[in-house]
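Lecture 7 notes: from sequence to structure.
We start with the chain below.
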Amino acid sequence: MDSTGFVTLNRQAGLLKEMDTVANNIANMATNGYRREGVIFSEFVVDTGERDNSISMAHANTRMSDMEQGALMQTNGTFDFAIEGPGFFLVATPEGDKLTRAGSFTPSPEGILVAPDGATLLDAGGAPIFVPVDSNTLALGADGTLSADGTPLAQIGLWEPADPLAMTRAEGTRFDPGGDPIPTAEARILQGFVERSNVDPVRELTRMIEVQRAYELGRTFLDREDERVRAAIRTIGQQT
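Predicted structure tokens for the same chain:
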């Protein structure tokens, strides 16, 4: 296969990755705390010599996460928390501590605040947050201080990665901080709210149509190129 075919196939592979990413964004439009993903295309250029043209190929091996604030939805849930501004909650999982913007928690039978899958919400000191089972009124201050019947229990931690470029997506709405996260005080926590996904449905559906059209165009080109090569082989075979 000539360089034109390789370049087109490489482009098609990148478009498939982008289509997977767009489809995943659409599937998570209703997932609280979800961050939209995108694909970053990079160019790889090979110098073929002074007299020949260089070969340029695109790679789509890197994904980026859009950290734009999602809309806040009021739930009036006692253990529903939303971050207004930058920062993340820190939860302890079997795979290590993870950052997340998903703020729906509930007390475990032991009184520890956990996410729906059992991940433990951590306070500003990195310790689990215990809520007495006999508490009547639970209130949350803007600084994250959680109080039961007027008695402070803990301060919910707000964190950010020490190196934003080292942070990677883990699973679902969680991120691996890529090292020890650091506290941040540039945001406030709201009780009775959750942050919705920051996926824009119109934008994603429009992008899906664009990627589909680009992929179809590439496939048509490959089909025509294949037919051209077959015709050339038939012609050469008839002449020999």
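Points to note: The mean pLDDT is 86. The helical segments are 3-27, 201-239.
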